[in-house]
Amino acid sequence: MPANPEETTPIEALGPQPRGRASDYLSLARFDHVTKHVFILPGLILACALSEPDPAALVINIPVGLLSAVSIASANYVINEWLDRERDAAHPTKSQRRAVVVEMQPRIVYGEYLLLAVIGLLLASVVGKLFFATSLLFLLSGILYNVEPIRAKDKPYLDVLTECLNNPIRFLLGWAIVDQVTLPPVSVLAAYWMAGAFLMAAKRLGEYRDIAANAGVAVLKKYRRSFEYYTEESLTVSCFVYAMMTAFLLGVFLVKYRVEYILVFPFISGLFAVYLWLATRPGSVVQRPERLFHSRRLDVMLTLTIVVFLFASFVNVPVLDFLAASFLVPISSLQ
User: How does this protein lie in the membrane (predicted)?
Assistant: First the structure.
């Protein structure tokens, strides 16, 4: 006798599924998302700018550290896709993920998660204690975000603020590759967190606009519980709040540490503007981070931002010192 449709899960409703192959299990790790680790580079560059790194150590620590970060991020992706498979079945495009359309064995999935996590932590231990501790935090963030009873991804605003913790974590990973003794300024970590919140809120906005327009709000709420509380207006406002907090915290950092970074501000603003513009477009690439670099405008703005950031990190511009002065500057000194 057929099951009651109301008691059938979205995956069961798809009918019989083919058995998963090795390639299907590997797809859970999302190795195509490796471009996200570009967020490690600012931490690495800033540590090089504010300290005196050992070039010989960097030759080992950079590739080992990046491989460790990729492994732990992939472990988080595995658990994410596996625990989200029921809700992903209601999403217009995520319903094509392998965890949804093929039958997978839980013991193999959890084995893959543990293997990637162990590999990542073993590699992290080679880099140093700070890098290892940060890698543990990276792994924990994936559990807090995806696993009950907390499962922060189902809670409005907390879903954004928890997922984007990966940004300051990645920054700290980059810093720890260079410097195992000190911590980066709290202001820059907080700014990186808020910048990540902006990116994630813009992604939510893109999803809301696109899916609500094509499939209806009901499908959105079925796909992710946090959308039960979001509106297009609230997501747009949150983007502006996160962007303003990022600018304020970056201002605190540059006044205290390196005034040359003010040269990067216009480019960061342009980067945020392009990203928000992309989020409002139909079928926006911000919904699929692995395709972000398919946007030429974003590529150009990101490249310019990185170039100016490198320049500001290693080239002193004395004429900018007056901007950080804590006293009144005579007009005659500017002539």
Answer: Multi-pass membrane protein
Token pair, residue 284, equals 């926006």
CA distance 98 to 95: 8
* d(C-alpha 16, C-alpha 102), whole Å: 9
Domain residue spans in the chain? 1-183, 185-335
The H or E element containing residue 136 is helix 129-146
The mean of the pLDDT values for the chain is 85
The confidence score (pLDDT) of residue 50 equals 83
Amino acid in the structure at residue 102: V
Cβ-defined contacts of 205-208 (< 8 Å, 24+): 205/232, 205/235, 205/236, 205/239, 205/279, 205/280, 206/278, 206/279, 206/280, 206/281, 206/284, 206/286, 206/287, 207/287, 208/232, 208/235
Question: What's the distance, Cα to Cα, between the start and end of the chain in Å?
Answer: 89
pTM across the whole model: 0.82
CATH of domain 1-183: 1.10.357.140
The tokens describing 314, both together, are: 């290693």
